[in-house]
Protein: Acyl-CoA dehydrogenase family protein
Organism: Nocardioides imazamoxiresistens
Amino acid sequence: LPPFAPLDPAGIDALLSAEEKAVRASVRQLCEQRVQPHVADWFERGEIDDVRGLVRELGSLGLLGMHLEGYGCAGMSATEYGLACLELEACDSGVRSLVSVQGSLAMYAIWRWGSEEHKQEWLPRMAAGEAIGCFGLTEPDHGSDPGSMRTRARRDGAGEGADWILDGRKMWITNGTVADVAVVWAQTDDSAHGIRGFVVPTSTPGFSAPEIKHKQSLRASVTSELVLDGVRLPADAVLPEVSGLKGPLSCLNEARYGIVWGSLGAARSSLAAALAYAGEREQFGRPIAGFQLTQAKLVDMNLEYTKGLLLALHLGRMKDAGTLRPEQVSLGKLNNVREALEICRTARTILGANGISLEYPVLRHANNLESVLTYEGTVEMHTLVLGQAMTGIAAFR
Ligand code: TGC
Ligand code: FAD
């Protein structure tokens, strides 16, 4: 029999192909060398050193838009993308966020709904990490209900060739301040189309992206406000292939899928830290791992981690087969983020006072997961998505 692996008690590794394990190993290596030694310091200072250099390294490993085909993207499977998200988030949710927003939101929006010119202009540079993207949906007054957004796009003149003018504000936008291009969703006056997406070079006059400071979560991640003050764009800046809320929501399916896996990375890192600490820390004359209450915590953490991983892998295989429904992504995001947060908090208790120190990853992960619990659809929104799917009755409003 293969040996029992404390961090893979059900032997899930055996369900992965050699290629999938190779992707996982290369991402883990990059994280251990490039991110892990610095990430607590970045978190403490609220600043990633040389973010552009980091993005280029992520690009050179093929991690940006890695599950997209063509235009310089790596064309890997959804399962490989998931495994990469898990390894990135085992380092820090902020690094996974950077990659999610670049690949699953900004690049995916252009790849899925953009014109050939948009794709040619942006995707190869974004895949290589030479251009950074952000995705502006949330507004100060409209988060869970993006359909009520106030940001407006109006035509300056008549006809299809007229410029667009964008006015409004977006809030809590990952990568905003460092982005070269923003995919911005705005309400139009055209009732036939409604909400449209716009490809906005961030150098366009009227666009600014002040950074949001004083966060107590995702501190190793750039989060910004987007200010759109009479931003004039050519007629062809609009994403031509989609209109309505389904445009941005289709992109969210992609990023939410990555979080199903990624959140387990934070959980695994915290579980590993707690297991190691419990074996070394002695109280009452013996390692705390020898106390039944500590063992119960470690076992329960591992059960939830293992169930979450099986769920992620199952959803990944469905996504690769083209059968994954948005409600099923909601199921995975809701469960895995909620359980990962619980695992990180329990790990924190095992580390006692040391658990609150940045010398250990556990509270940093737990604090990060507070954001992950809220962004990409809150626990309540995903509960209501599933409630609607089960009962046939929408309870959002
Ligand atoms: P509703 O009437 O249900 O739907 C409007 C249209 O959208 C379609 N649709 C979807 N399409 C694709 N994928 C999905 N998941 C979809 N859900 C709905 C729907 O079929 C309809 O299409 P059509 O053609 O009939 O018009 O819309 P609603 O206004 O009732 O809202 C539904 C609700 C609440 C589920 C939705 O608004 C929602 O998901 N709200 C949460 C908002 C959210 O998740 N925001 C995330 C912002 S981005 C972010 O957080 C990035 S953090 C990234 C990081 O750093 O990692
Ligand atoms: P609200 O929608 O105001 O919700 C507040 C509370 O009310 C929540 O508990 C919610 O579940 C509950 N609630 C709301 N409506 C209902 C209801 N009908 N029934 C029951 N409960 C309800 N957005 C982007 O567009 N792009 C990004 O890159 C991005 N990055 C982010 C990065 C960070 C670090 C964070 C924290 C957020 C980011 N967001 C981003 C925004 C994120 O998507 C929103 O915060 C999220 O959608 C929730 O919106 P809100 O914060 O306005 O909360």
Observations:
- The mean pLDDT is 98.
- Residues 125 and 131 are 5 Å apart (CA to CA).
- The first helix runs from residue 18 to 45.
- The beta strands are 133-136, 152-156, 163-174, 181-188, 195-201, 207-208, 223-233, 282-283, 286-287.
